[in-house]
Specification:
- The structure holds 2 protein chains of 2 kinds.
- Chain A is 0% helix and 47% strand.
- By secondary structure, chain B is mostly beta strands.
- Chain B contains no helices and 11 strands.
- In chain B, strands 2, 4, 5, 6, 9, 10 and 11 form a 7-stranded mixed sheet that branches. A 4-stranded antiparallel sheet of chain B has the order 1-3-8-7, with no helix packed on it.
- The model of chain B has no long low-confidence stretch (mean pLDDT 91).
- The chains are: A mainly beta, B mainly beta.
- Chains A and B meet through strand 3, strand 4 and strand 8 of A and strand 4, strand 5, strand 9 and strand 10 of B.
Chain lengths: 111, 116
């Protein structure tokens, strides 16, 4: 699995877009970029994933650079409930069910 | 559809004891994975079961073991508890391996184990 690098923490004002960066320069061609988040004292929650193209769902948007060495998770209108640790993970298409979590980014939403 | 459930939610044990944690996956899911989360080490993969067989294992000592039943429910056991085993133990379920491709994992709320 690709090693990912994320800032340890970020702040974002409530109502603004939260942009969480992730570097994954060693990602290989068959590895997806996955994002999970963990709200305090709960299990991690799947957010979104992508391979090459940008992706959007009801929770967030994922922007992947053309060289696939980095990506950005965008929460368009952050709320206090988005305060959590966000994990960016590279996972192979042929990978079985094992996730290697890094340290993630602790996102603080400021009122 | 009911989510992943874990029991008990909280547990206090003393050093040297053993403990068994239970996980009920989402209906239809055949893969169950276990993770340990501590402030120092973060989220670490313990093992994964699929169709009652362990097919992946992390770097944990043999004191940590698990099993899966025919209904996909899983248990993990920790014997001879140590203070460092205090952690949040998370279970995740997924459909399991298909013809290539990662299956999204759904996590339970976890069991918080405290070892005194």
């Amino acid at each position: 699995d690709a090693k990912t690098t994320q800032p340890p923490s970020m702040d974002c004002a409530e109502g603004r877009a939260a942009n969480l960066p992730c570097n994954h320069s060693t990602i290989s061609g068959n590895e997806y970029v996955y994002w999970y988040r963990q709200i305090h004292s709960q299990g991690p929650q799947y957010i979104i994933h992508g391979l090459k193209n940008n992706e959007t769902n009801e929770m967030a948007s994922l922007i992947i650079t053309e060289d696939r060495k980095s990506s950005t998770l965008i929460l368009p209108h952050a709320t206090l409930r988005d305060t959590a640790v966000y994990y960016c993970i590279g996972l192979s298409m042929n990978r079985d069910d094992k996730i290697i979590f890094g340290k993630g980014t602790r996102l603080h939403i400021l009122p | 559809k009911a989510g992943v459930t874990q029991t008990p939610r909280y547990l206090i044990k003393t050093r040297g004891q053993q403990v068994t944690l239970s996980c009920s996956p989402i209906s239809g899911h055949r893969s169950v994975s276990w993770y340990q989360q501590t402030p120092g080490q973060g989220l670490q993969f313990l093992f994964e079961y699929f169709s009652e067989t362990q097919r992946n294992k992390g770097n944990f000592p043999g004191r940590f073991s698990g099993r899966q039943f025919s209904n996909s429910r899983s248990e993990m056991n920790v014997s001879t508890l140590e203070l460092g085993d205090s952690a949040l133990y998370l279970c995740a379920s997924s459909l399991g391996r298909s013809a290539g491709g990662f299956n999204e994992q759904f996590f339970g709320p976890g069991t918080r184990l405290t070892v005194l």
